[in-house]
């Protein structure tokens, strides 16, 4: 959760410094609004891809660990059968 907050803050800072050029008004200009929307949208899109990739990798790792544990159990069971 803390990492997500740090990332959010970094993206907010990045988009603000990239998109907001005039601090004199109370409202964003249309160009600033468009820039912030685009910048934030890129973050959201890339975050979705990263999370999907992370989830897939974690699933594969868990499957591999499960298969290794099963293989080890089978090897131990076979060894126990040979040495009663």
UniProtKB/TrEMBL annotation:
Residues 65-84 are annotated as: Disordered. Its main location: mitochondrion. GO terms for biological process: protein insertion into mitochondrial inner membrane; protein transport. It is found in: Mitochondrion inner membrane. InterPro entries: Mito_inner_translocase_sub, Tim10-like, Tim10-like_dom_sf. It is a peripheral membrane protein. Keywords: Chaperone, Disulfide bond, Membrane, Metal-binding, Mitochondrion, Mitochondrion inner membrane, Protein transport, Translocation, Transport, Zinc. The keyword Cell wall biogenesis/degradation does not apply. It comes from the Eukaryota. Residues 1-56 form the Tim10-like domain. Residues 65-76 have a biased composition (Polar residues). The keyword Mitochondrion applies. The twin CX3C motif contains 4 conserved Cys residues that form 2 disulfide bonds in the mitochondrial intermembrane space. Mitochondrial intermembrane chaperone that participates in the import and insertion of some multi-pass transmembrane proteins into the mitochondrial inner membrane. Also required for the transfer of beta-barrel precursors from the TOM complex to the sorting and assembly machinery (SAM complex) of the outer membrane. Acts as a chaperone-like protein that protects the hydrophobic precursors from aggregation and guide them through the mitochondrial intermembrane space. Belongs to the small Tim family. Heterohexamer. This is Mitochondrial import inner membrane translocase subunit. It comes from Helobdella robusta (Californian leech). The gene is 20214777.
């Amino acid at each position: 959760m803390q990492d997500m907050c740090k990332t959010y803050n970094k993206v907010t800072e990045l988009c603000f410094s990239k998109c907001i050029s005039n601090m004199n008004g109370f409202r964003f200009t249309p160009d600033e609004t468009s820039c912030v929307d685009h910048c934030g949208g890129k973050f959201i899109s890339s975050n979705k891809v990263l999370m999907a990739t992370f989830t897939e990798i974690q699933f594969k790792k868990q499957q591999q660990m499960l298969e290794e544990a099963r293989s080890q159990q089978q090897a131990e069971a076979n060894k126990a059968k040979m040495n009663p």
